[in-house]
Amino acid sequence: MNYPKKILILIISLFSMKIYAGEYKLENVPAEYMGIYVPSTYELLLNTYKSHEKAMNKIAPTHYDVLFLKKDICYSTLRFNDQYAVSKDDFEAWEFFRKGDDYYILDENNYLYRRIDKNTVDSKDYEIVEEYVLSVIFRDFLSNKKISLKNNSVNIYGTKYKVLLDPSYSDAEKALYLVNSKGVYFLIIDGLNAKIVKAERNEEFVMEYYPTDIVVQEFSLSN
């Protein structure tokens, strides 16, 4: 490649980066509102059904999955898989307000989001959301002393699991997808009782799993 072509490509690349930065770089982000937000409707559904998948299915595609609001940019995701930046135009239509100790965002479509954490460190974003989801789903089961939460993992009778929010492991509307060194599992909650069943890979869609009849663990509020 000759130098004129290299220079032309460089100019085009820089111009494209400038356009991209202009479209997604945010101005006047209120510092006191930076952090991680989840849809209020998702929170309500998560508390009601104790199912991350069911809550996500009911808010898609009208809501942002999550909002990671930084100093000059805001990210969201497509079902906790592909991350993307919120456009400057959409952001400028947002409203910010506080109610007691809670901070809220009203988006361009009048959907409400509540802040769950003040974090602005990129590397911790997903871990904090995972921790939040676990805390809601297992809230009622923590009276059982053999179940405990630590960061984004849960220990159930000595077996440790981490949570998967990525819908690549989607099957239906099971409560949650869990993983450890031995494999992928489904958490299924039925009232005051719960069980973890083994998941098998879908042969037609290699990134999907389906539940089997193999019950790995069963537990309840008290034992």
Short description:
With 223 residues, the protein is α+β, with helices and mostly antiparallel strands.
Dominant shape: globular
* Fraction of helical residues: 25-40%
Distance between the termini: 70 Å
Structural class: alpha+beta
Strand content: 35-45%
Largest sheet: 7 strands, antiparallel
Low-confidence stretches: 8-20
In round numbers, the mean pLDDT is 85
Number of helices: 5
Radius of gyration: 21 Å
Tell me how many strands there are.
14
Order of the strands making up the biggest sheet: 4-3-2-1-7-6-5
Order of helices and strands: HEHHEEEHEEEHEEEEEEE
Model description:
α2 packs antiparallel against α3. With 223 residues, this protein is α+β, with helices and mostly antiparallel strands. β12 and β13 form a beta hairpin. 26% of the residues lie in helices and 36% in strands.
Could you name the key traits of this structure?
seven-stranded antiparallel beta sheet, 223 residues, single chain, alpha+beta, 5 helices, 26% helix
Topology:
Elements: H1 3-24, E1 35-39, H2 40-49, H3 52-59, E2 67-69, E3 74-78, E4 82-85, H4 88-91, E5 95-99, E6 102-106, E7 112-117, H5 125-137, E8 147-150, E9 153-156, E10 159-164, E11 176-180, E12 183-190, E13 193-201, E14 209-220
Antiparallel strand pairs: 1-2, 1-7, 2-3, 3-4, 5-6, 6-7, 8-9, 9-10, 10-11, 11-12, 12-13, 13-14
